[in-house]
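[READ THE FOLD]
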Amino acid sequence: MAESPSAHATIIVPASQPMVALLGPQDALLRVVERCVPEADFHVRGNEITVRGPSGAVELAERLVEELVLVLRTGQGLTAEAVERSAAMLRSEAAERPADVLTLNILSNRGRTIRPKTLNQKRYVDAIDRHTIVFGIGPAGTGKTYLAVAKAVQALQAKQITRIVLTRPAVEAGERLGFLPGTLSEKIDPYLRPLYDALHDMMDPASIPRLMAEGTIEVAPLAYMRGRSLNDAFIILDEAQNTSAEQMKMFLTRLGFGSKMVVTGDVTQVDLPGGTQSGLRVVQEILTDLDDVAFCRLTSHDVVRHRLVSAIVDAYGRYEAGRPQRSDASPGRGRGRRGAK
């Protein structure tokens, strides 16, 4: 294949933009840019960045620097991760611009702003805005539950809904509550803890007990949803891979007027007892073509935890792909798992 013709370009960074913010202390971010576009050579002098190399690489470098400058203009700082994700989005030739993805503010609390960090996360957030029921499906660490809770709190603050309902299967492996010590509330608390943790990140912790006492926020096991109709609510079902097909149908039919539902789960982490089919797997076949229902799929590329988490997810995916096909669950699986998003 013929090599791309050589090219060069001079990128002039606006004088109002401090170069240290763009290049990083001791040019740390510049080195990340160089790793992201290894085919190009970069030379910096004052507020000018000269790029030489194959025309495709030079064009990519120009676009990447332009996007990073746009991010900085919003007042948001740059990180190595933001640079890498911006380059990945540009290489994917997605319609969305990296700056639009990385500067979309969902919620701010105590000096911290919650934003999507990947293209699929932004598409997931956009789907929540546009659809009544959204399924967020993907591995742990991709922000499925966290972003859904952020959107729920945002909707509550904007008075778009009057309450938030957070639910998940009380016990992943067969709902054996009787084997746990304490009252029912004490038994189910460990399984709902990830939802409490997300709320505490996004709201004044002192206000949460009051809002829960008033019924504005409800955190309850899935079994408590039966027989109810939830109006003017933002309802989130977490760990949905551990619902049966019947439980999933029961949950979805709780939808009332003025409400929105987000269902999150990881179909590779089913902890149901042997022979029980995951409701999250079944629902993808049933509701795929239904209007106002969206399925958003996140991957290891959307993991926003430690770098190794993405590699671990991929490694397990390769391992499972090489094994013989089997049913959703087998006896004894999941006894020790209480995973969190």
